[in-house]
Amino acid sequence: MLTEEEKTEIQKEIKQYPYPAVACIDALKIIQHHRGWVSDESVRDIAQILSISNEEVDSVATFYSRIYRKPVGRNVILVCDSVSCMILGYESVYEYISKKLGICFGGTTSEGRFTLLPISCLGDCDNAPAMMINYDHFNRLTIEKIDEILERYK
Amino acid sequence: MERPLTQHIKPGSVAFNLKDYNQAGGYGSLQKALKNMTPGDVTNLVKASNLLGRGGAGFPTGVKWSLVPMDGENSQPKYLVCNADEMEPGTFKDRYLLEGNPHQLIEGMIISAYAIQAEKAYIFLRWAYKKAEAGLRTAIEEAYKAGYLGKNILGSGFNLDLYVHSSAGRYICGEETALLNSLEGKRAMPRTKPPFPAISGLFGRPTVVNNVETLSWISHIVENGADWFKGLSLTATGGTKLFGVSGKVKNPGTWELPLGISMRELLEEHAGGMAPGHKFRGALPGGASTDFLIEDHLDVKMDFSTVAAAGSRLGTGTMIVLDDKTCPVAFVHNVEKFFALESCGWCTPCREGLPWVEKMLASIEAGTGKMEYLDLLNFNAKYMGPGNTFCAHAPGAAEPLQSGLKYFYDDFVKHIIDKKCPWRQEW
């Protein structure tokens, strides 16, 4: 069930548009903001409030890479694996994080603190390699910087 | 040398606020356009300047605008959309403009909306650009308070509301009709063209979609005129361009330079040449979806027609350099993997061809490739090419593939014969 806060936020988005279905991506992002991910139950709730089918909502939810249809950790690490970061050695950064946390791309640590995912070019190519944790950008990464950065996220 | 777009941007510092922007003459062009020019005058001026779109395709901006119906009872509502979904690997120029001078974009958008008489405008922003998003939202709020947005702007009777839409990922959103579907809350699948967005775009209404850098030009062209704009470049196409260089160079970065400077000048004078111990082998001159150019091409002038004549595209103007310590097969594999992942899955050459290409390249890089893969890669590059697909995604992916095979063929063959990557042992 949607909370009152979620409903209010979704209704506010709906008002901006000619018809409710346009707010689908906004609604998915609102749910994810509050719950970390989008469950089957949330898909049904969004479908109801937008007056469209569950399948339509799910087709949109599964299309976009930044909508999570599976639970993620409290913090999501997004390591850029595009070409400029490859040339500047993102692989060593990834391998260090992977070994330190004991997870590969797609994995979540057992205590639920981190999920590790690849991300396409972050537009930080002149400061490669780059990554994001949640909404924070980090660039010119070296393995020496990683421990201190990860410590900031509990 | 004039640098109109970036003159007020200081890297690392905060964005220009409204007070500073006004002091530098900001919103003067808006006053001029609304008071002294008709919408048709603005479109004709932009047409006369021959401003080519800066998002990658290089379509003439004024021509795009002139396709929008202006009269008749069915000409409203209309929309203006700014494509700020910068996601082309190796491209980081729009972020620089968005973070550094959001009012320049907003003023350009208001004048552009006036030219096509659109009363609603959207900035379709890449979700990851959080700093840009915050700066834009603040700047839009300032513009509303100052009367540059909203009802009856500066007493002209023209109304405009401007919204920021933060995306949810996927490179295909940068394709203008896919972007419109995404703005409508749908999967970002490209649409059939025609009808073009100028006739039937957002919510089936006439819509213009322009890139950040393109729209950032408008206030300057209104202020200084078409001839001034043309005089900024070293070639027939007018204006400066944001160029960028990434890879193993001494000083990677982005710079505003006249169209028509040579690749060599960009690489050596601005990017400082190759990093110590690295040799230049080639570059994608305008982002991941452009053909490789090699050492023989270093004197090619960086403008739309000259780069095309050399067998590539100016694209976004942001160059990715391949050096001798980086495996060309790994480079091409990385790029093709990106395109395979980002395909929307609608048409067969893209949905089936790209994963096939990606698997063959992975196999060659891992030392398990076969010689017949080279023909199959060329076969796929051909059938992913222009005319065989629904949109420009797969043809873009074919460019670094076909040119990579052409210029680095011996490296591909060596991987297959030696059954290993010659570069991997150094790691």
Structure characterization notes:
- The complex is a heterodimer of chains A (154) and B (427).
- Chain A is α+β, with helices and mostly antiparallel strands.
- Chain A folds into two domains: 4-63, Arc Repressor Mutant, subunit A (Orthogonal Bundle); 75-151, 3-Layer(aba) Sandwich (Glutaredoxin), CATH 3.40.30.10.
- Chain A has helices at residues 4-15, 24-35, 40-50, 54-63, 83-87, 90-101, 143-151, and strands spanning 75-80, 114-119, 131-133, 136-138.
- The radius of gyration of chain A is 18 Å and the shape is elongated.
- By secondary structure, chain B is α/β, with parallel strands linked by helices.
- Chain B has three domains: 18-231, NADH-ubiquinone oxidoreductase 51kDa subunit (Rossmann fold); 240-323, Ubiquitin-like (UB roll), CATH 3.10.20.600; 328-426, NADH-ubiquinone oxidoreductase 51kDa subunit, iron-sulphur binding domain (de novo design (two linked rop proteins), Up-down Bundle), CATH 1.20.1440.
- Chain B has helices spanning 18-23, 28-36, 39-49, 61-66, 93-100, 102-116, 130-145, 176-183, 212-224, 226-231, 263-270, 304-309, 328-342, 348-366, 372-383, 393-407, 409-418; strands at residues 79-84, 120-125, 161-166, 207-211, 240-246, 253-258, 280-284, 318-323.
- Chain B has a four-stranded parallel beta sheet with strand order 3-2-1-4, with helices on both faces. In chain B, strands 6-5-8-7 form a four-stranded mixed beta sheet, covered by helices on one side.
- In chain B, a hairpin with a 6-residue loop joins strand 5 (240-246) and strand 6 (253-258).
- In chain B, helix 2 runs parallel beside helix 6.
- Chain B is globular and about 75 Å long.
- The mean pLDDT of chain B is 95.
- At the A-B interface, helix 2, helix 4 and helix 5 of A face strand 5, strand 8 and helix 13 of B.
